[in-house]
Design goal:
Distance between the termini: 25 Å
CATH architecture of the largest domain: 2-Layer Sandwich
CATH class of the largest domain: Alpha Beta
Number of domains: 2
Radius of gyration: 19 Å
Number of helices: 7
Amino acid sequence: MVSSRQSVLLQSNLTGVKLFSRGKVRDVYDLGDKLLIVATDRLSAFDVVMNEGIPDKGRVLTQLSCFWFNRVKGEIRHHFITARVAEFPQELRAFADQLQGRSMLVHKTKPFPIECVVRGYLVGSGWKDYQATGSVCGIKLPAGLQEASRLEDPIFTPATKAQTGHDENITWEGMVERVGKDAAATLRDMSLDLYRKGREFAASRGIIIADTKFEWGLKDNEPILIDEVLTPDSSRFWPASEYAAGKSQPSFDKQFVRDYLESLHWNKQPPPPPLPVEVVEKTAEKYREAYRLLTGVSLSEVSPQ
């Protein structure tokens, strides 16, 4: 439903259009050989979807993905077709109020059952793994690294896709078993290359991309980039001006919500506790600021690409 007061879309409702899937954040519709991806303003924390939406969150995820898809056009094949509602099939245009700025028309592919995670900094589950084993997902790292240390050579740590709950890290051998040796090597190399390009560009805009995850799908027997790309939901974005190894970093994502929830006596099971207005607004500001810094324009100035 849409709340005009907050300009929040919690769930799309495209009557007569076939729903393909409804995830924690996005609603996907089946258009035959194409898909329509609608990024709602839902927010999931600790695998529980909050009752409150984050204003403009879906627009940031969509428009930032559009930005990256357009940047890599000609270098990397991807599924993106258009985000202009005027260019959507006729039957979708009646839903422009729900779709404008937060939806993408994309080619349908056969997704690889792998989350292609690239880590450029030692943080999160990687930091915990390193503390316990000196390695991250079986990849040995130098001794003496700190939390949030930069890895000069980013590492590729695949994971399985989980429909519910957390994705699970797997070994390189486990990935090869799932997709084959040649495909695994191709996805790894393309993911590392794309991360390096994204990290370099973001650094020029004052943002550190600490890690990210990519998804790839098969189209015409070739792997192409799908899903969202280098957004605050698929990546950790840190302000470069505040970076210092050895501690947790401030971030441009839902960490503000996580930190609030950690301060409560909540068992991290549904139903979620209510989010105060100030937490919702601060989180929305984080998403908008990430978009502005990376693209050089504010979200209010953008036209769908």
